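Sample entry (130 residues):
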Amino acid sequence: MESSSATSQISHEAVCFCGQASVTRTSWTEKNPGRRFRDCSFYGRPVSCDYFSWVDLPPYPRYKAIINGLLRKGNNKGNEEQKIRRLVKFHRIALGVFVLGAIIQNLWLRIVPDNLLGLVLERKLELFMW
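Predicted structure, serialized as tokens:
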């Protein structure tokens, strides 16, 4: 069986090889989207008996194509949302840096005497002209 995220519920109809009630899960793999199956309630643990059986028949090709398309579309929306969140975070940081720069510049202008500031700017202009 392919690895997948699956929804699950305990089924009292089928019993696995351990004698425990099997768990009904839903496969969300590309090969079996939305297809239900039963497995051991201890699946993923060392004591699992590896019981497995399908509840549903194999999906029709058209059904698989539609479900997989919807799943991809849903995943793309999640990716777009992540991109937007990263962009918002970037802009917040950029705005913070800009504001911090403006504060530092304002403090610099208050601390440094006018004649020293003029000399610094002239020196930068001379260096730039070279």
